[in-house]
Amino acid sequence: MFPPRTIVAAVDFSDLSRAALNDAARLASQSGAALHVVHALDPLLETAARSRGVNLTDESSEQLSTFCASALDGDDRPVLQHVMVGSPVDVICALAKREAADVIVVGATGITGAERVIFGSTAEGVVRRAHTSVFVVRTGQTTGP
Questions:
Q1: Which of 47, 76, 117, 136 has its CA 20 to 30 A from that of 111?
Q2: Domain locations in the chain?
Q3: In terms of pLDDT, which residue wins out, 75 or 64?
Q4: Which residues lie closer than 8 Å to 5 by C-beta, 6 or more apart?
Q5: What's the whole-model pTM score?
Q6: Directed axis angle between helix 43-51 and helix 56-71, to 10°?
């Protein structure tokens, strides 16, 4: 629904996800929408870290806070931050559904060929599975003011 009331932006701490977060924040600012930022933790990595006494969820939450602060420099709008364990597609779609998001913003890495067949694309998976609109920020796309 546009203008959106709730936006979910997925980040993996890459430059592309920074661009996607910037676009999501601009859209949220222009529409007065709530902005939810989500980072998905790999379940195997989280379990391995936990077995070694490392709380990866807490560390990732701190990293997400730092990432959001640097990516949204000067934007004082509240940002709801989520670190969730699971496959990125599952996590993003579940959060969007739970929060009744009107749009999901994700970055597309532009993988092709065999790499795409083997690994798939998070953006493609979200587009296929989401119950709402998905805004895909492409590699090399620049964001404006």
A1: 47
A2: 6-138
A3: 64
A4: 31, 32, 33, 34, 102
A5: 0.87
A6: 120
